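Justification of resources, computational component.

The compute hours requested in this renewal are based largely on the per-chain cost of generating structure records like the one below. Each record pairs the submitted sequence with a full structure-token output. That output is archived, and it is also reused by downstream analysis tasks.
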Amino acid sequence: MALTLRHWIGAGVVGCAALVVALLPPPVKRGDEAQMWRQDLNARATIANLMNRDYQLALILSRRDDALAQLRRTPAAPSSPAARVRVVVDARRAERVGALFRTGLEASADTLTSRFGAFDAGAPVVVFATADTEFKAPTSGGRVGLGRWLYLFPEMTDGRTCLVIAPSGRGSGGPGTFATSVVVGPCGYYAAFGAPGPAVAEWLRALDYYPALEPDWFKARRESWEPDVLEQLPYLSWGQALASISHAGLTLHASGCAAGKLPRCDAYVRELPWFLSTRSQRGAAAFMAERFLWSRGDAFSWYLADLVREKGPDRFARFWRSGLPRDSAFAAAFGLPMNEWTHRWLAGQRRSIFLGPTIRLTSTVLGFLLAALLVAGGAYYTTRRQVS
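The structure output for this chain reads:
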């Protein structure tokens, strides 16, 4: 085969590239000053993040103290049926709490009072309607504000009240805007069943109470509630913003559990989904839950609600208040292991779960169609070229 001009040009380019690679200078080792400077930047960023979290927690505790002080000044009447779930408007910031926001909360609280009134072991739930606050923390410079619904359990309040901090001004609206489960969150389980047993409480704390975010077991179907992601976007990191859109897919543990791998079910109920940022379980933060933007699209936040819906409140109450270890309490209350029920629950929602090198029928058909199109296109092109 005769060498053409393009062959000589290609050989020259490859030869020059080889010379460049061979003559590259050795990598320069960074001096101790550069390494120390980089470590110092990392240390400063870590300290700034910790300070920002402390400012955030201080703001939350300040609103909690305002709510408890206001409750002591204006206690609910013992004969009032609304004492189980009641709305209290922040007196210091009442002018900044929208009227429609307050009306929507009160309508939801009335509905919840009728739902939870049938239970006699519940704890009172107070929804504290307050105004959001945003400022830049000194030194760290990060944003500090409420921004999301917060649920403070009795260990973090007065020992008996489950407190919901509902910030007005972001994601708020009029009557009908709030799903009833959003208003009380995990506090709904306290309102209906009282405080959980020690093993169940320890399990929920390790998961930031995520499986208990949706107490809507009294409805035949799950409620729907979509926050305004665009409005919240400035307050999210890139990872959180991506997770708020892409979280609907199952995690690896969830996929394995749905496919029948029971050890994966054990792992699934022990770990938070990948898209949730972990919070240090120290001090007061161990007894507080947050509602993330993407929580209502993930099945795990309905775990306990679906359990109550399927097994009934009486059997669930035995599990919830049991003094046994979590798995033993589950088996004693429901008559089957926790991992087995978890598998059935996930498999019922996702019926086409494949693990390993499995080829789907649709993929095979599409592959054959694509190959046929390529063969036909190639034959058509070759035929035209020979004719011409």
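The chain has a mean pLDDT of 77. The chain has two domains: 43-195, 196-351.
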